[in-house]
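Training component of the fellowship. As part of building independent skills, the fellow (R.M.) carried out the full modelling exercise for a liganded target. The chosen ligand was zinc ion. The inputs are recorded below so that the supervisory panel can assess the work.
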Amino acid sequence: MVQQCNTFFRAGFRAGIQPPEIHQIWQCLHQIADPELPALSITDLGMIRAVTPLQNGWRVTFTPTYSGCPATEYLINAIQETLAQAGFTPVYIEISLTPAWTTDWMNADAKQRLRESGIAPPQGLACEKTADVEPITCPCCGSHETEKISEFGSTACKALYRCQQCLEPFDYFKCI
Ligand SMILES: [Zn+2]
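Fellow's submitted model of the complex:
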């Protein structure tokens, strides 16, 4: 069996096909929520850059949303534990800081879920310098009549807005 696996691996590498475990690992990683944005998983946020099979084990390439963020240590442990529970060991975590994480890596599904949790997702693209295009849309009622109350909301990456339509204050996740 081991022999067969090895043969499969080598054949897969030659053909550029990913072994099926890669898909399972991505699914495991999709279960890990971001501690600061519990509505989103680390894969929604685009923090997992790659999953690579090694001769012995797996390499997960990970980009923290903010370098020095206290969540980074927590997430590294969470990745190790989640994958170990699913039988994937050893796992080597490679931290990739270049290019730096950007809100552009958040997928459309992630933005929708942010909205549902009452946070306005980033508007515009940091890479195209169209970041934070006003007006910011209210995540509660969809109104464009909103005003900025404070540059910093519940965390540094968010700004605090208020909707003039439904009068709800809300966090806006700034483009970075
Ligand atoms: Zn509103």
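The panel noted the following from the submitted structure. Residues 138, 140-141, 143, 163, 165-166, 168 surround zinc ion (CB under 6 Å). Residues 121 and 152 are 15 Å apart (CA to CA).
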